[in-house]
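Cross-posting from the chemistry board since nobody answered there.

I work mostly on the small-molecule side, so proteins are not my area. We synthesized pyridoxal-5'-phosphate and want a rough idea of how it might sit in this target. Sequence and SMILES are below. Is it possible to get a predicted 3D structure of the two together?
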Amino acid sequence: MKLEVPDYIYTIPPYVPGKPVEELEREFGIADSIKLASNENPLGPSPKALAALGAAAAKLHRYPDGAGFALTQRLARHLKVKPGQIVLGNGSDDLLGMLARVLLQPGDEAIVPDPSFLMYTIVVQSAGAVPVKVPLDQRLAMDLPAMLSKVGPRTRMVFICNPNNPTGTAIGRQAFDAFMAALPERVLVVVDEAYYEFVRDSGCVSGLAYLESPCAVVTLRTFSKAYGLAGLRVGYGVMNASVADLLNRVRMPFNVNSLAQVAATAALDDSLFLEKTLATVHQGLDFLYAELSKRGLRYFPTQANFFLIDVVRPADEVFQALLRQGVIVRSMRAYGYSTYIRLSVGLPEENLRFLRALDAVL
Ligand SMILES: Cc1ncc(COP(=O)(O)O)c(C=O)c1O
Protein backbone atom coordinates (compact mmCIF):
# COMPACT_ATOMS: atom_id res chain seq x y z
CA MET A 1 0.00 0.00 0.00
CA LYS A 2 1.16 3.52 -0.73
CA LEU A 3 -1.52 5.73 0.77
CA GLU A 4 -1.00 9.48 0.69
CA VAL A 5 -2.38 10.43 4.09
CA PRO A 6 -2.08 14.03 5.29
CA ASP A 7 0.42 14.37 8.15
CA TYR A 8 -2.22 15.88 10.42
CA ILE A 9 -4.15 12.59 10.47
CA TYR A 10 -1.22 10.97 12.27
CA THR A 11 -1.34 13.66 14.98
CA ILE A 12 -4.97 12.87 15.94
CA PRO A 13 -5.08 11.38 19.44
CA PRO A 14 -7.34 8.27 19.19
CA TYR A 15 -10.45 8.56 21.39
CA VAL A 16 -10.28 6.22 24.38
CA PRO A 17 -13.79 5.23 25.53
CA GLY A 18 -14.69 4.01 29.03
CA LYS A 19 -13.85 0.33 29.49
CA PRO A 20 -16.88 -1.90 28.77
CA VAL A 21 -17.94 -4.27 31.59
CA GLU A 22 -17.62 -7.29 29.24
CA GLU A 23 -13.98 -6.42 28.47
CA LEU A 24 -13.08 -6.08 32.15
CA GLU A 25 -14.74 -9.38 33.04
CA ARG A 26 -12.96 -11.14 30.14
CA GLU A 27 -9.56 -9.72 31.12
CA PHE A 28 -9.79 -10.31 34.88
CA GLY A 29 -11.97 -13.43 34.87
CA ILE A 30 -14.47 -11.78 37.25
CA ALA A 31 -18.26 -11.30 37.28
CA ASP A 32 -20.72 -8.68 38.62
CA SER A 33 -18.62 -5.67 37.65
CA ILE A 34 -20.09 -2.19 37.52
CA LYS A 35 -19.30 0.65 35.12
CA LEU A 36 -19.31 4.18 36.48
CA ALA A 37 -17.09 5.54 33.73
CA SER A 38 -19.08 6.88 30.76
CA ASN A 39 -21.72 9.10 32.38
CA GLU A 40 -24.50 6.78 31.27
CA ASN A 41 -27.96 6.58 32.81
CA PRO A 42 -27.84 4.12 35.75
CA LEU A 43 -31.58 3.37 35.44
CA GLY A 44 -31.24 1.96 31.91
CA PRO A 45 -33.23 3.17 28.88
CA SER A 46 -36.52 5.07 29.11
CA PRO A 47 -39.31 2.42 29.36
CA LYS A 48 -41.46 4.35 26.86
CA ALA A 49 -38.55 4.29 24.39
CA LEU A 50 -38.16 0.53 24.88
CA ALA A 51 -41.88 -0.05 24.32
CA ALA A 52 -41.78 1.95 21.09
CA LEU A 53 -38.95 -0.15 19.65
CA GLY A 54 -41.02 -3.32 19.21
CA ALA A 55 -43.33 -1.95 16.54
CA ALA A 56 -40.46 -0.13 14.80
CA ALA A 57 -38.45 -3.37 14.50
CA ALA A 58 -40.99 -4.81 12.04
CA LYS A 59 -40.06 -2.05 9.57
CA LEU A 60 -36.30 -2.55 9.61
CA HIS A 61 -36.24 -3.53 5.92
CA ARG A 62 -37.04 0.12 5.10
CA TYR A 63 -34.55 2.99 5.17
CA PRO A 64 -35.10 5.46 7.99
CA ASP A 65 -36.80 8.79 7.35
CA GLY A 66 -33.73 10.74 6.25
CA ALA A 67 -35.25 13.99 7.49
CA GLY A 68 -36.27 12.52 10.87
CA PHE A 69 -39.62 14.26 10.51
CA ALA A 70 -41.48 12.99 13.59
CA LEU A 71 -38.55 13.41 15.99
CA THR A 72 -37.71 16.85 14.64
CA GLN A 73 -41.33 18.01 15.01
CA ARG A 74 -41.50 16.62 18.54
CA LEU A 75 -38.20 18.30 19.49
CA ALA A 76 -39.31 21.61 17.99
CA ARG A 77 -42.41 21.54 20.22
CA HIS A 78 -40.37 20.52 23.24
CA LEU A 79 -37.79 23.30 22.76
CA LYS A 80 -40.15 25.95 21.31
CA VAL A 81 -38.04 26.38 18.17
CA LYS A 82 -38.81 25.83 14.47
CA PRO A 83 -38.20 22.37 12.95
CA GLY A 84 -35.85 24.01 10.41
CA GLN A 85 -33.59 25.03 13.31
CA ILE A 86 -32.90 21.42 14.30
CA VAL A 87 -30.40 18.97 12.80
CA LEU A 88 -30.35 15.36 14.04
CA GLY A 89 -27.14 13.42 14.55
CA ASN A 90 -25.90 9.89 15.11
CA GLY A 91 -25.16 11.00 18.66
CA SER A 92 -24.04 14.58 19.22
CA ASP A 93 -20.56 13.41 18.14
CA ASP A 94 -21.93 13.27 14.60
CA LEU A 95 -22.87 16.96 14.76
CA LEU A 96 -19.36 17.87 15.96
CA GLY A 97 -18.02 16.17 12.84
CA MET A 98 -20.50 17.98 10.56
CA LEU A 99 -19.57 21.35 12.08
CA ALA A 100 -15.88 20.71 11.48
CA ARG A 101 -16.53 19.60 7.87
CA VAL A 102 -18.56 22.73 7.14
CA LEU A 103 -16.36 25.31 8.82
CA LEU A 104 -12.76 24.21 9.01
CA GLN A 105 -10.03 24.10 6.40
CA PRO A 106 -6.37 23.19 6.96
CA GLY A 107 -4.66 25.98 8.90
CA ASP A 108 -7.87 27.34 10.45
CA GLU A 109 -8.14 27.54 14.23
CA ALA A 110 -10.78 26.45 16.72
CA ILE A 111 -10.69 27.38 20.39
CA VAL A 112 -11.02 24.43 22.74
CA PRO A 113 -11.21 24.50 26.56
CA ASP A 114 -8.67 22.21 28.20
CA PRO A 115 -9.40 19.77 29.68
CA SER A 116 -12.76 19.15 28.08
CA PHE A 117 -14.48 16.59 25.87
CA LEU A 118 -11.75 14.96 23.77
CA MET A 119 -13.80 14.84 20.56
CA TYR A 120 -13.41 18.60 20.00
CA THR A 121 -9.68 18.21 19.37
CA ILE A 122 -10.27 15.12 17.25
CA VAL A 123 -12.79 16.72 14.87
CA VAL A 124 -10.70 19.90 14.54
CA GLN A 125 -7.53 17.96 13.73
CA SER A 126 -9.44 15.70 11.33
CA ALA A 127 -10.06 18.78 9.19
CA GLY A 128 -6.38 19.76 9.31
CA ALA A 129 -7.25 22.71 11.53
CA VAL A 130 -5.51 23.70 14.75
CA PRO A 131 -7.12 23.29 18.19
CA VAL A 132 -6.09 26.30 20.28
CA LYS A 133 -6.28 24.94 23.82
CA VAL A 134 -7.20 27.30 26.65
CA PRO A 135 -6.71 26.02 30.22
CA LEU A 136 -9.64 26.04 32.63
CA ASP A 137 -9.55 28.60 35.44
CA GLN A 138 -8.77 27.95 39.13
CA ARG A 139 -12.31 26.64 39.75
CA LEU A 140 -11.87 24.17 36.86
CA ALA A 141 -14.43 26.19 34.89
CA MET A 142 -14.11 27.44 31.33
CA ASP A 143 -12.15 30.70 31.23
CA LEU A 144 -14.25 32.64 28.72
CA PRO A 145 -12.15 35.86 28.83
CA ALA A 146 -8.98 33.82 28.16
CA MET A 147 -10.76 31.98 25.33
CA LEU A 148 -11.82 35.32 23.86
CA SER A 149 -8.23 36.59 24.02
CA LYS A 150 -7.19 33.71 21.73
CA VAL A 151 -9.58 34.66 18.91
CA GLY A 152 -7.49 35.56 15.86
CA PRO A 153 -7.99 36.01 12.10
CA ARG A 154 -8.00 32.21 11.49
CA THR A 155 -10.47 31.42 14.32
CA ARG A 156 -13.58 29.79 12.87
CA MET A 157 -15.23 28.28 15.93
CA VAL A 158 -15.19 28.12 19.71
CA PHE A 159 -16.23 25.07 21.74
CA ILE A 160 -18.06 25.57 25.02
CA CYS A 161 -18.93 22.50 27.06
CA ASN A 162 -21.67 23.39 29.50
CA PRO A 163 -21.51 21.68 31.97
CA ASN A 164 -17.92 20.79 31.19
CA ASN A 165 -16.81 17.20 30.88
CA PRO A 166 -14.76 16.17 32.93
CA THR A 167 -15.00 18.92 35.57
CA GLY A 168 -18.80 19.36 35.83
CA THR A 169 -18.59 23.16 36.03
CA ALA A 170 -21.21 25.33 34.30
CA ILE A 171 -21.31 28.85 32.90
CA GLY A 172 -23.46 31.66 34.29
CA ARG A 173 -25.49 34.17 32.30
CA GLN A 174 -23.28 37.22 32.94
CA ALA A 175 -20.07 35.53 31.81
CA PHE A 176 -21.80 34.16 28.71
CA ASP A 177 -23.37 37.54 27.85
CA ALA A 178 -19.98 39.27 28.09
CA PHE A 179 -18.37 36.61 25.93
CA MET A 180 -21.05 36.81 23.24
CA ALA A 181 -20.97 40.62 23.18
CA ALA A 182 -17.23 40.62 22.41
CA LEU A 183 -17.03 37.71 19.94
CA PRO A 184 -16.61 38.61 16.24
CA GLU A 185 -19.67 37.64 14.16
CA ARG A 186 -17.65 35.39 11.84
CA VAL A 187 -16.91 32.96 14.69
CA LEU A 188 -19.38 30.11 15.33
CA VAL A 189 -20.01 29.04 18.93
CA VAL A 190 -20.66 25.37 19.68
CA VAL A 191 -22.38 24.97 23.04
CA ASP A 192 -22.25 21.30 23.97
CA GLU A 193 -25.03 20.62 26.49
CA ALA A 194 -24.78 16.82 26.67
CA TYR A 195 -25.44 17.04 30.45
CA TYR A 196 -27.73 20.09 30.58
CA GLU A 197 -30.73 18.17 31.97
CA PHE A 198 -28.75 17.44 35.17
CA VAL A 199 -27.94 21.10 35.98
CA ARG A 200 -29.18 22.24 39.41
CA ASP A 201 -27.64 25.73 39.45
CA SER A 202 -30.41 28.13 38.37
CA GLY A 203 -27.72 30.66 37.32
CA CYS A 204 -26.53 28.38 34.51
CA VAL A 205 -27.55 29.52 31.03
CA SER A 206 -28.28 27.47 27.90
CA GLY A 207 -26.95 28.20 24.42
CA LEU A 208 -30.62 28.26 23.33
CA ALA A 209 -30.88 31.73 24.90
CA TYR A 210 -28.46 32.94 22.19
CA LEU A 211 -30.21 31.43 19.18
CA GLU A 212 -30.97 34.88 17.75
CA SER A 213 -27.50 36.35 18.43
CA PRO A 214 -25.49 37.97 15.63
CA CYS A 215 -22.93 35.16 16.08
CA ALA A 216 -24.04 31.68 15.02
CA VAL A 217 -24.65 29.59 18.14
CA VAL A 218 -25.15 25.83 17.78
CA THR A 219 -26.48 24.13 20.90
CA LEU A 220 -25.89 20.38 21.02
CA ARG A 221 -27.89 17.95 23.13
CA THR A 222 -28.11 14.19 23.29
CA PHE A 223 -30.37 11.29 24.19
CA SER A 224 -27.31 9.36 25.45
CA LYS A 225 -27.31 10.63 29.02
CA ALA A 226 -30.51 11.71 30.80
CA TYR A 227 -32.71 9.73 28.38
CA GLY A 228 -30.65 6.54 28.66
CA LEU A 229 -30.25 5.84 24.92
CA ALA A 230 -26.45 5.94 24.48
CA GLY A 231 -26.44 2.64 22.57
CA LEU A 232 -28.87 3.91 19.93
CA ARG A 233 -26.79 7.00 19.03
CA VAL A 234 -29.07 9.99 18.73
CA GLY A 235 -28.37 13.64 19.42
CA TYR A 236 -29.33 16.98 17.89
CA GLY A 237 -28.23 20.52 17.32
CA VAL A 238 -30.35 23.66 17.53
CA MET A 239 -29.18 26.58 15.40
CA ASN A 240 -30.12 29.31 12.98
CA ALA A 241 -31.91 27.76 9.96
CA SER A 242 -29.15 28.98 7.60
CA VAL A 243 -26.54 27.07 9.64
CA ALA A 244 -28.84 24.02 9.67
CA ASP A 245 -28.91 24.22 5.86
CA LEU A 246 -25.08 24.05 5.80
CA LEU A 247 -24.95 21.04 8.12
CA ASN A 248 -27.60 19.23 6.10
CA ARG A 249 -25.34 19.50 3.04
CA VAL A 250 -22.61 17.39 4.71
CA ARG A 251 -24.88 15.17 6.82
CA MET A 252 -25.04 11.50 5.74
CA PRO A 253 -28.53 10.87 4.34
CA PHE A 254 -29.65 8.26 6.92
CA ASN A 255 -27.42 9.24 9.81
CA VAL A 256 -30.04 8.53 12.51
CA ASN A 257 -31.41 5.00 12.29
CA SER A 258 -35.11 4.27 12.45
CA LEU A 259 -35.05 2.63 15.90
CA ALA A 260 -33.20 5.61 17.33
CA GLN A 261 -35.73 8.04 15.84
CA VAL A 262 -38.72 6.17 17.26
CA ALA A 263 -37.12 5.63 20.68
CA ALA A 264 -35.99 9.24 21.05
CA THR A 265 -39.46 10.53 20.11
CA ALA A 266 -41.02 8.27 22.75
CA ALA A 267 -38.36 9.19 25.34
CA LEU A 268 -39.33 12.86 25.07
CA ASP A 269 -42.81 11.88 26.28
CA ASP A 270 -41.38 9.91 29.21
CA SER A 271 -41.25 12.74 31.73
CA LEU A 272 -41.63 10.29 34.62
CA PHE A 273 -38.40 8.54 33.59
CA LEU A 274 -36.56 11.85 33.30
CA GLU A 275 -37.76 12.86 36.77
CA LYS A 276 -36.65 9.52 38.22
CA THR A 277 -33.27 9.85 36.50
CA LEU A 278 -32.66 13.33 37.89
CA ALA A 279 -33.74 12.27 41.40
CA THR A 280 -31.43 9.23 41.29
CA VAL A 281 -28.47 11.28 40.11
CA HIS A 282 -29.00 14.20 42.48
CA GLN A 283 -29.60 11.97 45.54
CA GLY A 284 -26.59 9.88 44.52
CA LEU A 285 -24.41 12.96 44.24
CA ASP A 286 -25.44 14.27 47.65
CA PHE A 287 -24.81 10.86 49.22
CA LEU A 288 -21.38 10.52 47.58
CA TYR A 289 -20.35 14.09 48.52
CA ALA A 290 -21.22 13.38 52.18
CA GLU A 291 -19.40 10.03 52.20
CA LEU A 292 -16.28 11.46 50.55
CA SER A 293 -16.24 14.36 53.04
CA LYS A 294 -16.38 11.86 55.90
CA ARG A 295 -13.27 10.23 54.44
CA GLY A 296 -11.50 13.59 54.11
CA LEU A 297 -11.32 13.24 50.32
CA ARG A 298 -11.57 16.33 48.15
CA TYR A 299 -14.16 16.34 45.36
CA PHE A 300 -15.42 18.95 42.91
CA PRO A 301 -19.18 19.68 43.07
CA THR A 302 -20.77 19.16 39.68
CA GLN A 303 -23.72 20.26 37.55
CA ALA A 304 -23.59 16.97 35.62
CA ASN A 305 -24.01 13.26 36.45
CA PHE A 306 -20.27 12.76 37.08
CA PHE A 307 -17.64 14.47 39.18
CA LEU A 308 -13.94 14.55 39.97
CA ILE A 309 -12.42 13.09 43.12
CA ASP A 310 -8.84 13.70 44.24
CA VAL A 311 -7.68 10.27 45.39
CA VAL A 312 -4.29 11.75 46.46
CA ARG A 313 -2.47 8.87 44.77
CA PRO A 314 -1.54 8.25 41.12
CA ALA A 315 -4.94 8.05 39.41
CA ASP A 316 -3.87 5.29 37.01
CA GLU A 317 -2.93 3.04 39.95
CA VAL A 318 -6.23 3.69 41.74
CA PHE A 319 -8.10 3.08 38.48
CA GLN A 320 -6.34 -0.29 38.02
CA ALA A 321 -6.91 -1.29 41.65
CA LEU A 322 -10.62 -0.42 41.36
CA LEU A 323 -10.81 -2.54 38.20
CA ARG A 324 -9.59 -5.52 40.19
CA GLN A 325 -12.52 -4.86 42.56
CA GLY A 326 -14.86 -4.92 39.54
CA VAL A 327 -15.49 -1.16 39.52
CA ILE A 328 -14.77 0.83 36.33
CA VAL A 329 -14.16 4.58 36.73
CA ARG A 330 -12.00 6.98 34.66
CA SER A 331 -8.44 7.99 35.46
CA MET A 332 -7.92 11.67 34.74
CA ARG A 333 -4.16 11.40 34.20
CA ALA A 334 -4.51 11.80 30.43
CA TYR A 335 -6.54 14.97 31.09
CA GLY A 336 -3.66 16.46 33.11
CA TYR A 337 -4.99 15.61 36.60
CA SER A 338 -2.55 13.00 37.85
CA THR A 339 -4.38 12.18 41.11
CA TYR A 340 -8.02 12.64 40.06
CA ILE A 341 -10.56 10.07 39.01
CA ARG A 342 -13.92 10.82 37.39
CA LEU A 343 -16.91 8.97 38.75
CA SER A 344 -20.32 8.70 37.05
CA VAL A 345 -23.16 8.54 39.58
CA GLY A 346 -24.74 5.08 39.69
CA LEU A 347 -27.66 3.41 41.43
CA PRO A 348 -27.57 3.63 45.26
CA GLU A 349 -26.10 0.12 45.52
CA GLU A 350 -23.48 0.93 42.87
CA ASN A 351 -22.44 4.08 44.71
CA LEU A 352 -22.03 2.03 47.89
CA ARG A 353 -20.06 -0.60 46.03
CA PHE A 354 -17.74 2.12 44.67
CA LEU A 355 -17.17 3.50 48.19
CA ARG A 356 -16.39 0.06 49.57
CA ALA A 357 -13.96 -0.59 46.70
CA LEU A 358 -12.34 2.82 47.18
CA ASP A 359 -11.93 2.18 50.90
CA ALA A 360 -10.26 -1.14 50.13
CA VAL A 361 -7.95 0.45 47.57
CA LEU A 362 -6.98 3.52 49.58
C1 LIG B 1 -19.51 16.68 26.60
C2 LIG B 1 -19.96 15.59 25.71
N1 LIG B 1 -20.44 15.90 24.51
C3 LIG B 1 -20.86 14.95 23.66
C4 LIG B 1 -20.81 13.63 24.01
C5 LIG B 1 -21.23 12.62 22.99
O1 LIG B 1 -22.48 12.23 23.18
P1 LIG B 1 -23.27 11.36 22.11
O2 LIG B 1 -23.46 10.04 22.72
O3 LIG B 1 -24.53 12.12 21.89
O4 LIG B 1 -22.43 11.30 20.86
C6 LIG B 1 -20.33 13.25 25.25
C7 LIG B 1 -20.27 11.83 25.61
O5 LIG B 1 -19.68 11.40 26.54
C8 LIG B 1 -19.87 14.26 26.13
O6 LIG B 1 -19.36 13.97 27.32
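Reply from a structural biologist on the board:
Welcome over. Reading the output above for you: Residues 39, 91-93, 117, 161, 165, 192, 194, 222, 224, 230, 235 surround pyridoxal-5'-phosphate (CB under 6 Å). Residues 7-44+272-361 form a domain with the Aspartate Aminotransferase, domain 1 fold (CATH 3.90.1150.10). Happy to explain the C-alpha coordinate format if needed.
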